[in-house]
Every structure is written in C-alpha cells, then in structure tokens.
Please model this.
Amino acid sequence: MGAAYFYHLTRRPLEATLPVLLDRARQAGWRVAVRGTDVGRMAWLDEKLWLGPEEGFLPHGLAGGAHDADQPILLTTGPEAANAPECVMAVDGAEVSSTEVDALERVCIVFDGNDHDALTRARRQWKMLKDAGCKAQYWSEESGRWEMKAET
Model:
C-alpha cells in the first residue's frame, strides 16, 4: 500500500521543484509518470528538464514517442502511463484515485499554493483520499524548507 504526498509550493515554481522530486524518486529506484492536464504544458516541462544541469540529468520522455515504455520518467496527460510507473507525480490539477495510491509506491500531488483554484483542488483531493483510507502527508515549503505539516 502506497501513500499520497501533497507538496504545497509557495516559494519555488514547479519547474524548480519537480527535478528535485524526480531525482528522489529515481534514487528510490522508481519509474515515474508525471501526469499533467495540458499537452503544451507537459512539452514545456519536458524542455525545462532537458535544459537542466548536465550532472543532474533526469532521463525522461514526453508521451507519444516510440520508446514510452522504456522511459524512466514519462511526462503524460493520460491516466495510463506506458512506462509502468511505481510513482505518479500529479501536477497542474491532474487527478489521482485512491486505487492508484493503494497500487503504487507513491503518488505526489504538487500544487501551486499561490493559485486559489489549485489550492481548492488539492484540498478536495486530500479529503477524498483521506476519506478512502489512504495514507497521506502534507508538505509545505512556507518556512523556506520542506516541512511535513499533516499526516493521515
């Protein structure tokens, strides 16, 4: 049984935080699907990952390629990821289900705390997953470093 980790961004944008989370997931040995809601936004994140520092390169691909199943990190907008991930990172309001949380090692819900709609969606997801009996942790960077603020 996995857990859902909620990451409340208030100081650093997604494109700065996502590589850190992806690196940690890869260090755990997990294949990752980054699930978004907009193909253009996923292409933008793909570009940002390619432009990152060479020494911290994260092997990844954008869904729709010939080698999706081989990608350690696959950026996608679909609910099913061809790379058989152990971890799903939901960004930009992408939905996750309690079934996914139970089936995967980890589900990360990364949301912009400066966006009222994103905050509302994250709160709704937290309640839905908590009510379904999923383990969940809420992490905030408000103090300048990541701190766990709540756990179910």
